[in-house]
Amino acid sequence: MVTLRLAQPTDNAALLELFAHVPMAGSLALVTRRDPDVFALYDIQRGLRECWVYADDDRLSGMGTVLVREGWLDGHACRVGYLGDLRGRFAVRRQRGLARLYGEIFEGVRQRYGCNVFLTAVLASNAVAIHSLARRRPERLSQPYYHLLRRFAAVSVHFTRRRLASTRPGVWVRHATETDIPALSALLDTDHRGRPFGYRFDTGELAHRLAHWPGLTLEHTYLAHDRHGQLLGCASAWDPSSLKSYQVEAYRGSMIWAKHGLNLLAALCRTPRLPEPGARFRAFYLCNVSIRDEHPVILRALLEHIYADFHPRGYHFFMVNMYEDDPLAPALRGFCRRSLAFHLYAVTSSSAPQTVYPRGRPGFEMVLA
Predict the structure, then answer these.
(1) Distances, alpha carbon 120 to alpha carbons 200, 288, 340, in Å
(2) What is the C-alpha R_g of the chain?
């Protein structure tokens, strides 16, 4: 018997097993690990959520999650949705039936929560997902409408040789303290009000993150300022491994040679070798990133201090988002890095598709995706 229903806490073990056995394909095959609690990553976020599961003869064969939060779009307050954690092991004949149900679920969520636009990120190499979700076909006209909003890369900055946190002209970097919270929150608020799908830092988003994201601290939040003390930018280094991590399934193709090269560098620089299949990466993300006027020199100063501080701590790399034609991209020059390409889609109702959105850096935290 096939059923589609909302997930329950008792589904946790089955969902963890689903995550562990549905890898992200590519030259580096990874599985997402969410143990011990698949729901914990949702619990730390403000807003509403629905996690749907697809059961086939009492076995969970697929899932997908809808998150809805308060945000900004075109300078106006609105609700912003995110469609994530789409996992499935379906026979082709059942995918078609599920496609029809997807449109009904989406319309129900949209009306229940008063949210008209949702974001979702899809691996650029995942041709099956892009074909199934984003490509319009007569038999899928009831599915939501996917508009390619931006192309972006999750850039992994690998720890190789030790670097000193050199000073950039006109930019000084230090750790944040409690007294910095008002100015830090104001910087993030001003930035996100102008972003498509920005976060509501004016209603306590930063305080919520510091209180509810395990391991996110002011000590690991870095501030860049000028000689007058004016705040120029910020970034937080956050390790979410208690909620989410990546396990290597296999190295294939070009990644086999990249692994050899990076492991040789690791031996020379006395940094950790890349994990073998079955083991997990040690990595952290940059979040709360806001750079005044998107000036790469400011981001570069922050990156150098973060790299220098975390180099001796046993991490393989840290991750930062870069968008297509990103003005901040020059900040990464000279670091050993690899990129994983994604598409960021804006998803709207098939009955009222939207294709025009404000330009600018989206309010999107890859660590939560």
Answers:
(1) 19, 19, 16
(2) 21
Which residues pair with residue 55 across a beta bridge? 3, 60
- Separation between Cα atoms, residue 120 and residue 3, nearest integer Å: 24
Task: Give per-residue burial for 153-180: e unless 16+ CB within 10 Å, then b.
Answer: bbbbbbbbeeeebeebeebebeebeeeb
The two most distant CA atoms of the chain are separated, in Å, by 67
Nearest-angstrom CA–CA distance, 328 and 330: 6
Distance between CA atoms of residues 285 and 248, nearest Å: 18
3-state SS, residue 253? coil
pLDDT tens digits in sequence order for the chain, 369 residues long: 668 899 999 999 999 999 988 877 778 888 999 999 999 999 999 999 999 998 877 788 889 999 999 999 999 999 999 999 988 876 534 555 566 678 888 999 999 999 999 999 999 988 888 888 877 776 666 789 999 999 999 999 999 999 887 777 889 999 999 999 999 999 999 999 999 999 999 999 999 999 999 999 999 999 999 999 999 999 999 999 999 999 999 999 888 998 899 899 889 888 999 999 999 999 999 999 999 999 999 999 999 999 999 999 999 999 999 999 999 999 999 999 999 999 999 999 988 899 999 999 999 999 999
Q: Is 213 helix (H, G, I), strand (E, B) or coil?
A: coil
**Euclidean distance between CA atoms 36 and 12, whole angstroms:** 9
Are 339 and 123 a contacting pair, CB within 8 Å? no
Find where tokens 């109702």 sit.
349
114: left (phi over 0), alpha (psi -120 to 50) or beta: left
